[in-house]
Amino acid sequence: MPKIKNKICLDGETVTPYDVFLVARKNFKVELSPKAVIKIQNSRNIVEKILKSDKGYYGINTGFGSFQDVSISKDKLSELQENLIISHSVGVGEPLPIDVVRAMLVLRINTLCKGFSGIKLSTVLAIVDLLNNKITPVVPEKGSVGASGDLAPLSHAVLVLIGKGEAFYKGKRISGKDALQKAKLEPVKLEAKEGLALNNGTQTMTAIGILTLHDAKNLAKLCDVSGAMTLEALKGKSSPFHPKIHEVRKHEGQGKSAQNIRNLIQGSELIDLVDKDTEKKVQDAYSLRCLPQVHGASRDAFDYVQKVLEIEINSATDNPLIFDDEEKIVFSAGNFHGQPVALAMDFLGLAIAELGNISERRTARLVDKNLNFGLPAYLTKNGGLNSGLMITQYTAAALVSENKTLIHPASGDSIPTSANQEDHVSMGTIAARQASEILKNVQNVVAIEILCAKQSLTFREQKPSKIIQKICDFLDSVSPKIESDREFGKDIKAIFDLVVTEKIIEEVQKEIKLN
User: Fold this and answer.
1) Are strands 29-32 and 7-10 parallel, antiparallel or unpaired?
2) Active site residues
């Protein structure tokens, strides 16, 4: 999509995960494409025609869920839609991050742009106003089972639109009514079908998934960097990264990771070094030798998740769907069901966790004097008086062990809701939240590996590659060389912040391009 003057044009067809990222985190504004405006208006015209008939249509002039057989009189249709949003706003827990909620809103607008939801154009434009004025609804993180979509979180997001609920605005948490007033916006009065068009869909799990995937893909690049640092510190061998090896096993991610390592270690005096410590070492441990195979598999998993999310972003996911077809214009079906995203989110969490598993094993080798080829125990000069980086590996071990619980597939569970009318649900939002939590854990695990690898290199007489040395020099600004014990938690946090903000990758890519 065009990105002109920090603005994304939404058309329901061609929006990308990166477009969503730009709105969510870079505060790009949004607008509707002319074609989307026409499709929204045409869809609403069909709803207006339906309202003139006496036939019952689910969610338009009937109740919801197991109340589907209850007919609603025309003078109560507006109240029906508002009651839907209010009654479904039952989420609990801490608020979702602002970037996630912004992503939810842009995704919801985009699905409405497809023109199958029957919503008024003015209501869609009101959501656009929320985004462009940086009004972010307070949305509790828990309460969605992922079908009929993300009912509870999407309802909380809509509360602000109708002048209720709470919002974050200019750094403060205030009532939704006050947020609209401060931005000089008017509350929306929902009409027939509109509440259902707003809270039926997969936008919460998809929003979390898009942002988690964005960070995971950058983390995969950083894992190649941290792995190369450790490879240098442990006087590793270059042969496992030779192009011929990866040409005969054509997994794309594996090849990209191997090429990154080759580029990162080029010119090193430590790689393939033979001395009294390493001359009997025929092969490196798997955590070094199989680095491209493991990192590459996660990369390939991320590519699969990307394809699923690209489809979901530009899909119509509410119910019923309204088609301009004289024979049957309203279809009550199940596009709100989050199963495609749920399975992808479980896969995403597992793929991220594996990056952490192998990183922690490299850290364990760095601090173990029996495995680190001549480095001092726990990477400290005066062991005994100083504990050095001993306990950093404990933290990494705790985080990867926590991830072993978090990778239990949420999509493997289901529980009936709405008096067994909705008797199979996806748990996709739980899967997405788990993947997000796994990501944070692995970002810390990799920060610990970077800390230990950087310290290890200070004990080597030979020089690492130019780019690895530059990374170490850059890291010294937030985590100087360790001479004696200090509060290493501060070092981990400082490096973690560089991981999250992608500053380390930016430094690397000033010298070489990372795949």
Assistant:
1) parallel
2) 58
